[in-house]
Amino acid sequence: MKRRLNRQGNMPPSNDCLIISQSARALVESAASSAIHSHTIDCFADQETRAIADSWRILNFQDGMLDSMALLDLLKDYESIPISHVVTGSGMEGCSKEVYDFISRRWNLCGNDYRTVQSCKDPVKLHYTLEKAAIPTPAIASERKQNGRWKIKKRGGSGGGHVRDYVNGSLLPAGSFLQESITGTTYSVVFLGNGQDARLIGVNETWQIKPGSGDYRYAGAATCGGMVPKTLSQELIDAIIILVRELRLKGLCGLDIIVTDAQYWYVLELNPRPTASFEHYDAGKHLLQAHIQACMGHLPKTYNVDEWLRGSLVVYADRAFTMPALDWPMWISDRPLPGTEINAGEPVCSLKAKAGTRTEIKELLDHRQSTFQHLLEAARHAA
């Protein structure tokens, strides 16, 4: 773990934050844009994170969850560091109550508490909340089904890697549930909540690696700009405010929805933490600072998004390899260090693009993916 020595010792409380997430890079960059010093616990400690964060530690991630016992051990190392806020990101959904209690007793938890997280990630509780509020959502089941089309999901999982198509009549593994499968286009809705009110930040179309393949890992997203119908936007805002008040949601959160060809929409998941696509809206907007303020009860009066559309694409390894040294283009983020062992199916890096239309975004990302693959192959052969 890297530390800046001049930030240790018996110092008074500061504005420093500890970020805990599957990947902390986007949150670290957002913190830096607001001159907030950050420490990180995540699963990658990529080049950008190491360059910006005051300290970093690596934690294992398995089946869409962070390791609670290992996290508790790491958290003890930060008790002597002057940290004011702890920001919780992806992977924390599956952490134990002991982790949340440990954090809350020592620091300001800038995120949702254990009870709220469980209300969002427990499929039965969330389904009850949505139905009570007349918010459309697919049917769920906790026992095997003989008919219909279903997806099997892990309770508390994140990132899509825990989702797969269900074979009718098969047993459900412990800790999993079924959700009715609906055909349509998936979106991630980013919003800020303060427990009573909310601000819609933006809507992103999300992609899976190979549509129709049964692989539901998160592959990337692109902002929708003004292409979301106003009626749908208003319905989403109304639904989000209901959920924020009912569940006391705070900070940056995400609502995963699916929209059918007939323009009916359904809530698939509610993520009570910053989602991967929040950074599409973070350029010059200091969303990590807004997240901290929202957790303290303060929301911006308005939130304006620039006219550019932004997108990102996750590159996954098609085979195991050792990361070579690379001259990284500016449009690549989440850069692994040379010598990093990457297994088949694991994320390698993320590609970014900015353009005027979603078609241009997709074309640019496809081109950049091809360019990156050529760069990577050339570096492998040169190593």
Structure overview:
The chain has 383 residues and is α+β, with helices and mostly antiparallel strands. The protein folds into three domains: 5-110, Rossmann fold, CATH 3.40.50; 118-295, D-amino Acid Aminotransferase, Chain A, domain 1 (2-Layer Sandwich); 309-382, Aldehyde Oxidoreductase, domain 3 (Alpha-Beta Complex). Helix content is 27%, strand content 29%. It has helices spanning 25-33, 47-52, 68-76, 97-106, 114-121, 123-132, 230-247, 287-295, 358-382, and strands spanning 17-20, 38-42, 55-58, 61-62, 65-66, 85-88, 108-110, 140-141, 150-154, 164-165, 176-180, 185-194, 198-210, 215-223, 250-259, 265-271, 309-316, 321-322, 332-333, 341-342, 347-355. The strands form five sheets. Strands 16-15-12-13-14-17-21-19 form an eight-stranded antiparallel β-sheet. Helix 3 runs parallel beside helix 4 (97-106). It is globular and about 55 Å long. Mean pLDDT is 92; it is low at 3-13.
List keywords for this structure.
globular; alpha+beta; 3 domains; 383 residues; D-amino Acid Aminotransferase, Chain A, domain 1; disordered N terminus; 8-stranded antiparallel beta sheet; Aldehyde Oxidoreductase, domain 3; Rossmann fold; 27% helix
Tell me the layout of helices and strands.
Blueprint: E1 17-20, H1 25-33, E2 38-42, H2 47-52, E3 55-58, E4 61-62, E5 65-66, H3 68-76, E6 85-88, H4 97-106, E7 108-110, H5 114-121, H6 123-132, E8 140-141, E9 150-154, E10 164-165, E11 176-180, E12 185-194, E13 198-210, E14 215-223, H7 230-247, E15 250-259, E16 265-271, H8 287-295, E17 309-316, E18 321-322, E19 332-333, E20 341-342, E21 347-355, H9 358-382
Parallel strand pairs: 1-2, 1-6, 2-3, 6-7
Antiparallel strand pairs: 4-5, 8-11, 9-10, 9-11, 12-13, 12-15, 13-14, 14-17, 15-16, 17-21, 18-20, 19-21
